Amino acid sequence: MGDFIKQYWDGQAEKYGDSHNASWGDNFAIDLEIQTIGKYISEGSDVLDVGCANGYSTFRQFEKKLKSITGIDFSKKMISFANEKKKVLGLKDNISFLVGDVRSLPFHDESFDVVYTTRVLINLRTWEEQKNGINECLRVCRSDGTVVFSEAFWEPLVLLNSIRLLKQLPSLVEHDFNRYLKKYQIESYLNSQNISFKVDDFSSIYYLGSRFLRELVTKPADYPGYSNPINKIFYQIEGEYSGGGMGIQQAYILKKEPQGKCQN
Protein backbone atom coordinates (compact mmCIF):
# COMPACT_ATOMS: atom_id res chain seq x y z
CA MET A 1 0.00 0.00 0.00
CA GLY A 2 1.27 3.45 -0.80
CA ASP A 3 2.64 5.55 2.02
CA PHE A 4 0.06 8.27 1.37
CA ILE A 5 -2.73 5.73 1.89
CA LYS A 6 -1.29 4.63 5.23
CA GLN A 7 -0.77 8.25 6.21
CA TYR A 8 -4.39 9.00 5.41
CA TRP A 9 -5.69 6.23 7.68
CA ASP A 10 -3.26 7.11 10.46
CA GLY A 11 -4.63 10.65 10.22
CA GLN A 12 -8.21 9.37 10.41
CA ALA A 13 -7.32 7.42 13.55
CA GLU A 14 -5.79 10.46 15.22
CA LYS A 15 -8.75 12.64 14.25
CA TYR A 16 -11.61 10.34 15.24
CA GLY A 17 -10.22 7.90 17.83
CA ASP A 18 -12.61 5.00 18.40
CA SER A 19 -15.53 6.57 16.46
CA HIS A 20 -16.97 4.95 13.32
CA ASN A 21 -15.90 8.15 11.54
CA ALA A 22 -12.31 6.92 11.57
CA SER A 23 -13.36 4.35 8.97
CA TRP A 24 -16.22 6.21 7.26
CA GLY A 25 -18.73 8.91 8.15
CA ASP A 26 -21.71 7.04 6.70
CA ASN A 27 -22.99 5.30 9.82
CA PHE A 28 -26.01 3.80 8.04
CA ALA A 29 -23.84 2.18 5.36
CA ILE A 30 -21.55 0.83 8.09
CA ASP A 31 -24.56 -0.69 9.85
CA LEU A 32 -25.64 -2.35 6.61
CA GLU A 33 -22.12 -3.79 6.22
CA ILE A 34 -22.09 -5.12 9.78
CA GLN A 35 -25.54 -6.69 9.41
CA THR A 36 -24.62 -8.30 6.09
CA ILE A 37 -21.33 -9.77 7.30
CA GLY A 38 -22.99 -10.89 10.52
CA LYS A 39 -25.33 -13.16 8.55
CA TYR A 40 -22.35 -15.38 7.73
CA ILE A 41 -20.88 -15.57 11.24
CA SER A 42 -22.06 -18.28 13.61
CA GLU A 43 -21.78 -18.46 17.39
CA GLY A 44 -18.62 -20.27 18.48
CA SER A 45 -16.60 -19.39 15.36
CA ASP A 46 -13.01 -18.23 15.06
CA VAL A 47 -13.23 -15.03 13.01
CA LEU A 48 -10.69 -12.78 11.31
CA ASP A 49 -11.58 -9.14 10.58
CA VAL A 50 -9.06 -8.02 7.93
CA GLY A 51 -8.68 -4.25 7.88
CA CYS A 52 -10.46 -3.76 11.19
CA ALA A 53 -9.46 -0.07 11.54
CA ASN A 54 -10.17 1.00 15.16
CA GLY A 55 -12.24 -2.13 15.82
CA TYR A 56 -15.64 -0.41 15.61
CA SER A 57 -17.18 -3.25 13.59
CA THR A 58 -15.08 -5.94 15.26
CA PHE A 59 -16.60 -5.18 18.65
CA ARG A 60 -20.07 -5.37 17.11
CA GLN A 61 -19.42 -8.81 15.60
CA PHE A 62 -17.88 -10.00 18.87
CA GLU A 63 -21.34 -9.71 20.47
CA LYS A 64 -22.28 -12.94 18.64
CA LYS A 65 -20.61 -15.08 21.35
CA LEU A 66 -17.71 -16.07 19.16
CA LYS A 67 -14.95 -18.42 20.19
CA SER A 68 -12.53 -15.71 19.09
CA ILE A 69 -12.23 -12.73 16.80
CA THR A 70 -8.99 -11.18 15.60
CA GLY A 71 -8.76 -7.75 14.03
CA ILE A 72 -5.81 -6.83 11.84
CA ASP A 73 -4.98 -3.49 10.22
CA PHE A 74 -1.91 -1.92 8.62
CA SER A 75 -2.39 1.33 10.57
CA LYS A 76 -0.62 1.13 13.93
CA LYS A 77 -2.63 4.08 15.15
CA MET A 78 -5.93 2.37 14.35
CA ILE A 79 -4.81 -0.76 16.22
CA SER A 80 -3.72 1.38 19.15
CA PHE A 81 -7.23 2.80 19.52
CA ALA A 82 -8.75 -0.68 19.13
CA ASN A 83 -6.58 -2.09 21.91
CA GLU A 84 -7.34 0.89 24.13
CA LYS A 85 -11.08 0.35 23.65
CA LYS A 86 -10.63 -3.36 24.44
CA LYS A 87 -8.90 -2.39 27.67
CA VAL A 88 -11.63 0.08 28.62
CA LEU A 89 -14.29 -2.56 27.99
CA GLY A 90 -12.38 -5.09 30.07
CA LEU A 91 -12.44 -7.74 27.33
CA LYS A 92 -10.23 -10.82 27.40
CA ASP A 93 -7.90 -12.54 24.95
CA ASN A 94 -10.65 -14.03 22.76
CA ILE A 95 -10.70 -10.64 21.05
CA SER A 96 -7.36 -9.34 19.84
CA PHE A 97 -5.95 -6.67 17.53
CA LEU A 98 -2.72 -6.85 15.53
CA VAL A 99 -0.83 -4.76 13.00
CA GLY A 100 -0.59 -6.53 9.65
CA ASP A 101 -1.15 -6.45 5.90
CA VAL A 102 -3.84 -8.23 3.88
CA ARG A 103 -1.21 -9.05 1.27
CA SER A 104 0.76 -11.15 3.75
CA LEU A 105 -1.40 -12.23 6.68
CA PRO A 106 0.65 -13.40 9.71
CA PHE A 107 -1.39 -16.57 10.31
CA HIS A 108 -1.06 -20.25 9.50
CA ASP A 109 -3.13 -21.83 6.76
CA GLU A 110 -6.73 -22.63 7.73
CA SER A 111 -6.73 -20.72 11.03
CA PHE A 112 -10.25 -19.23 10.94
CA ASP A 113 -13.83 -20.31 10.28
CA VAL A 114 -14.79 -16.92 8.84
CA VAL A 115 -12.56 -14.29 7.24
CA TYR A 116 -13.97 -10.96 6.13
CA THR A 117 -12.85 -7.62 4.77
CA THR A 118 -14.68 -4.31 4.87
CA ARG A 119 -13.47 -1.79 2.26
CA VAL A 120 -9.93 -3.16 2.52
CA LEU A 121 -9.03 -4.54 -0.91
CA ILE A 122 -9.93 -1.15 -2.41
CA ASN A 123 -6.93 0.31 -0.58
CA LEU A 124 -4.64 -1.80 -2.76
CA ARG A 125 -3.48 0.07 -5.84
CA THR A 126 -3.51 -2.68 -8.49
CA TRP A 127 -5.62 -5.70 -9.40
CA GLU A 128 -2.59 -7.94 -8.86
CA GLU A 129 -2.33 -6.73 -5.27
CA GLN A 130 -6.07 -7.15 -4.81
CA LYS A 131 -5.84 -10.75 -6.07
CA ASN A 132 -3.02 -11.32 -3.61
CA GLY A 133 -5.29 -10.09 -0.80
CA ILE A 134 -8.09 -12.39 -1.97
CA ASN A 135 -5.74 -15.37 -1.99
CA GLU A 136 -4.39 -14.59 1.47
CA CYS A 137 -7.90 -14.45 2.94
CA LEU A 138 -8.69 -17.80 1.34
CA ARG A 139 -5.43 -19.30 2.59
CA VAL A 140 -6.09 -18.56 6.26
CA CYS A 141 -9.74 -19.70 6.06
CA ARG A 142 -10.50 -23.27 7.09
CA SER A 143 -11.94 -25.83 4.70
CA ASP A 144 -15.72 -25.50 4.67
CA GLY A 145 -15.26 -21.98 6.01
CA THR A 146 -16.53 -18.68 4.63
CA VAL A 147 -14.76 -15.62 3.22
CA VAL A 148 -16.72 -12.38 2.85
CA PHE A 149 -15.39 -9.48 0.80
CA SER A 150 -17.52 -6.43 1.61
CA GLU A 151 -16.01 -3.92 -0.79
CA ALA A 152 -16.77 -1.04 -3.16
CA PHE A 153 -17.26 -1.84 -6.84
CA TRP A 154 -16.76 0.11 -10.06
CA GLU A 155 -19.76 -1.02 -12.11
CA PRO A 156 -22.41 0.18 -9.61
CA LEU A 157 -20.60 3.52 -9.44
CA VAL A 158 -20.91 3.84 -13.23
CA LEU A 159 -24.60 2.90 -13.10
CA LEU A 160 -25.34 5.37 -10.34
CA ASN A 161 -23.48 8.14 -12.17
CA SER A 162 -25.47 7.39 -15.34
CA ILE A 163 -28.68 8.03 -13.40
CA ARG A 164 -27.25 11.18 -11.84
CA LEU A 165 -26.31 12.42 -15.32
CA LEU A 166 -29.99 12.31 -16.35
CA LYS A 167 -30.62 15.08 -13.80
CA GLN A 168 -27.36 16.94 -14.50
CA LEU A 169 -25.90 15.99 -11.12
CA PRO A 170 -22.10 15.84 -10.80
CA SER A 171 -20.50 12.41 -10.93
CA LEU A 172 -19.49 10.58 -7.79
CA VAL A 173 -15.78 9.70 -7.79
CA GLU A 174 -13.37 7.39 -6.06
CA HIS A 175 -11.17 8.89 -3.38
CA ASP A 176 -7.45 9.06 -4.12
CA PHE A 177 -6.86 6.29 -1.59
CA ASN A 178 -9.36 3.91 -3.22
CA ARG A 179 -9.29 1.63 -6.27
CA TYR A 180 -12.76 0.13 -6.57
CA LEU A 181 -12.91 -3.54 -7.49
CA LYS A 182 -14.21 -4.50 -10.92
CA LYS A 183 -16.99 -7.04 -10.65
CA TYR A 184 -16.08 -8.64 -13.96
CA GLN A 185 -12.49 -9.10 -12.79
CA ILE A 186 -13.23 -10.69 -9.45
CA GLU A 187 -15.93 -12.94 -10.89
CA SER A 188 -13.74 -14.05 -13.77
CA TYR A 189 -10.90 -14.79 -11.35
CA LEU A 190 -13.05 -16.74 -8.90
CA ASN A 191 -14.57 -18.76 -11.73
CA SER A 192 -11.11 -19.52 -13.10
CA GLN A 193 -10.13 -20.89 -9.68
CA ASN A 194 -13.35 -22.93 -9.38
CA ILE A 195 -14.31 -21.01 -6.25
CA SER A 196 -18.04 -20.90 -5.59
CA PHE A 197 -19.48 -17.54 -4.57
CA LYS A 198 -22.63 -15.49 -4.31
CA VAL A 199 -23.20 -11.74 -4.26
CA ASP A 200 -25.17 -9.87 -1.61
CA ASP A 201 -26.26 -6.53 -3.11
CA PHE A 202 -27.11 -5.11 0.29
CA SER A 203 -27.02 -1.35 -0.31
CA SER A 204 -28.70 -0.52 -3.65
CA ILE A 205 -31.88 1.03 -2.24
CA TYR A 206 -29.82 2.99 0.27
CA TYR A 207 -27.51 4.34 -2.44
CA LEU A 208 -30.42 5.25 -4.69
CA GLY A 209 -31.90 7.34 -1.88
CA SER A 210 -28.77 8.75 -0.28
CA ARG A 211 -26.76 9.45 -3.45
CA PHE A 212 -29.50 10.40 -5.91
CA LEU A 213 -33.03 11.07 -4.67
CA ARG A 214 -31.86 13.19 -1.72
CA GLU A 215 -30.41 15.74 -4.16
CA LEU A 216 -33.73 16.01 -5.98
CA VAL A 217 -35.98 16.55 -2.97
CA THR A 218 -33.72 18.27 -0.41
CA LYS A 219 -30.86 20.74 -0.39
CA PRO A 220 -27.80 18.66 0.52
CA ALA A 221 -25.96 21.82 1.55
CA ASP A 222 -28.40 22.11 4.45
CA TYR A 223 -27.20 18.76 5.83
CA PRO A 224 -23.44 18.43 6.35
CA GLY A 225 -21.78 15.05 5.99
CA TYR A 226 -24.25 12.18 6.12
CA SER A 227 -26.85 13.92 8.30
CA ASN A 228 -29.55 14.21 5.63
CA PRO A 229 -32.76 12.60 7.06
CA ILE A 230 -33.31 10.94 3.67
CA ASN A 231 -30.40 8.63 4.52
CA LYS A 232 -32.19 7.18 7.52
CA ILE A 233 -35.42 6.66 5.58
CA PHE A 234 -33.69 4.67 2.83
CA TYR A 235 -31.60 2.77 5.37
CA GLN A 236 -34.87 1.59 6.90
CA ILE A 237 -36.31 0.68 3.49
CA GLU A 238 -33.13 -1.30 2.71
CA GLY A 239 -34.06 -3.59 5.58
CA GLU A 240 -37.14 -4.71 3.64
CA TYR A 241 -36.06 -4.39 0.00
CA SER A 242 -32.73 -4.64 -1.78
CA GLY A 243 -31.17 -5.19 -5.18
CA GLY A 244 -31.01 -3.20 -8.38
CA GLY A 245 -27.26 -3.07 -8.94
CA MET A 246 -26.71 0.49 -7.71
CA GLY A 247 -25.15 -0.44 -4.39
CA ILE A 248 -21.51 0.56 -4.63
CA GLN A 249 -20.95 -1.46 -1.46
CA GLN A 250 -21.61 -5.14 -2.12
CA ALA A 251 -20.49 -8.39 -0.51
CA TYR A 252 -18.99 -11.41 -2.25
CA ILE A 253 -19.44 -14.52 -0.15
CA LEU A 254 -17.02 -17.36 -0.92
CA LYS A 255 -17.30 -20.90 0.35
CA LYS A 256 -13.95 -22.61 0.78
CA GLU A 257 -14.52 -26.21 -0.19
CA PRO A 258 -12.56 -29.03 1.52
CA GLN A 259 -9.46 -30.10 -0.40
CA GLY A 260 -10.20 -32.77 -2.93
CA LYS A 261 -13.86 -31.85 -3.21
CA CYS A 262 -15.06 -30.72 -6.61
CA GLN A 263 -16.25 -27.10 -6.70
CA ASN A 264 -19.07 -25.99 -8.96
Protein traits:
single chain, 264 residues, alpha/beta, Rossmann fold, seven-stranded mixed β-sheet, 7 strands, 17% strand, globular
Q: Mind explaining what this structure looks like?
A:
The chain has helices at about 5-15, 25-40, 55-60, 75-90, 125-140, 155-165, 185-190, 205-215, 230-240, and strands at about 45-50, 70-75, 95-100, 110-120, 140-150, 195-200, 250-255. The chain has about 260 residues and is α/β, with parallel strands linked by helices. It has a domain at about 5-150 and about 180-205 and about 250-255: 3-Layer(aba) Sandwich (Rossmann fold), CATH 3.40.50.150. Helix 1 (about 5-15) packs parallel to helix 4 (about 75-90) and helix 8 runs antiparallel to helix 9. It starts with a helix and ends in a 9-residue tail after the last strand.
Question: What's the CATH C level of the domain at 3-152 and 179-204 and 250-255?
Answer: Alpha Beta
Distance between the termini: 33 Å
Number of helices: 9
CATH architectural arrangement of the domain at 3-152 and 179-204 and 250-255: 3-Layer(aba) Sandwich
Task: Please give the number of β-strands.
Answer: 7
CATH superfamily membership of the domain at 3-152 and 179-204 and 250-255 = Vaccinia Virus protein VP39
Low-confidence stretches: none
Mean pLDDT: 95
List the secondary-structure elements in sequence, H or E.
Answer: HHEHEHEEHEHHEHHE
- Please state the structural category: alpha/beta
- Calculate Rg over CA atoms: 18 Å
Biggest sheet layout: 7 strands, mixed
Strands ordered across the widest β-sheet: 3-2-1-4-5-7-6
Could you estimate the helical fraction of the residues in percent? 40-55%
Strand residue percentage: 15-25%
